[in-house]
Design brief:
The longest helix has 26 residues. The protein has ten helices and ten strands. It starts with a helix and ends in a 5-residue tail after the last helix.
Length: 327
């Protein structure tokens, strides 16, 4: 009995010492530069948001925050890299909602992938982004009806997306099912190359967030035909919803959020969450996010975790029903 008590007492002392050490370590965080990984090429909206947040966070914590682009496999390569990093708060991931579903489409497992539900620590949902159906000015499409008619006229209509497994890819396939149009998916390695090919007339339409296409709307190079949200977006109030036009159950909203590796200490999560909530309330940040087609979200870390889990469940079912696979 005495032996058991001695072991229990020793274990309690060890635990208390570990907790004290962990708290002291958290109090000194950060003491060196933080790396913010973006699993996509430079030039897209996730990259732009990361650089915006990195500047503000660096000012607040007194350490450099460096954006590290690690593109490939619809974000899986960069996300997997962060999942294997030390849980010390110095390697973080800013990810779009492709994070939740890419592996369901690309069928990547093992060491090349990551555990969507349990492999990361949610920190904060930074924003939400409505998705739009956008046509090239050179396509001649003035409405969704025009695009659907072209897709039913004996040939498939191609659409661009930032990558297989992206919310844009899923939306394209959901729209094809609901509209009865024959659509051919053309995946790209990120937002910027997808937009470039639509601008060049190589692909007539795309499903995309508003920010990257907004500069090309006033001059007619690109034309938003519809938004895939429940209500019209305040960012583009004149653009009708797909539901308004008779296409029901085709609602997909993208999002972005900040993650750390699994087992990130709660004290670090709380600190970063607090900083980001303050950043997201800054008027200049809200204005810049609006330009990128993004609405600030914020809130507790659990908001991001629940959003991720809901998308994984909902779109996992859609992917199975429609037999969606990587092109």
């Amino acid at each position: 009995m005495k032996h058991t008590r001695r072991h229990a007492f020793a274990a309690a002392i060890s635990l208390a010492a570990a907790c004290a050490t962990g708290l002291a370590w958290a109090d000194s965080y950060p003491s060196k530069p933080i790396t913010l990984v973006v699993a996509y090429p430079a030039g897209g909206d996730t990259d732009a948001l990361a650089r915006l947040f990195a500047e503000k966070l660096s000012t607040r914590v007194g350490q450099p925050v460096v954006v590290d682009n690690r593109p490939g496999a619809s974000g899986i390569i960069g996300s997997a890299y962060v999942s294997k990093a030390a849980p010390d708060g110095y390697t973080l991931l800013l990810a779009p909602s492709t994070f939740s579903i890419a592996q369901l489409v690309l069928k990547t497992n093992g060491s090349a992938g990551y555990d969507v539900l349990n492999g990361f620590t949610p920190i904060v949902q930074t924003g939400s982004q409505p998705l739009f159906l956008v046509a090239a000015g050179s396509s001649g499409f003035a409405s969704v009806k025009d695009a659907v008619a072209a897709a039913k006229d004996g040939k498939s209509l191609s659409y661009a997306s930032p990558g297989s497994g992206s919310p844009m890819h899923i939306l394209g396939e959901m729209f094809a099912r609901t509209s009865g149009a024959s659509l051919s998916h053309v995946p790209y390695k990120g937002v910027a190359p997808a937009i470039n090919d639509v601008l060049g007339g190589h692909v007539p339409v795309t499903f995309i967030t508003l920010g990257p296409v907004a500069p090309y709307i006033p001059n007619g190079k690109l034309r938003p035909l519809a938004v895939a949200s429940a209500q019209r977006s305040p960012l583009a109030p004149n653009v009708p919803t797909l539901a308004e036009m008779g296409y029901k159950d085709v609602e997909v909203t993208a999002w972005n959020g900040l993650w750390g590796p699994r087992n990130l200490p709660p004290e670090i999560v709380k600190m970063l969450n607090s900083h980001f909530n303050e950043i997201l309330r800054m008027p200049d940040i809200a204005a810049r996010m609006a330009v990128l087609g993004t609405t600030p979200v914020g809130g507790e870390a659990g908001v991001l975790g629940k959003t991720n889990a809901a998308d994984y469940t909902r779109f996992g079912k859609v992917i199975k029903e429609l037999g969606i696979q990587a092109d």
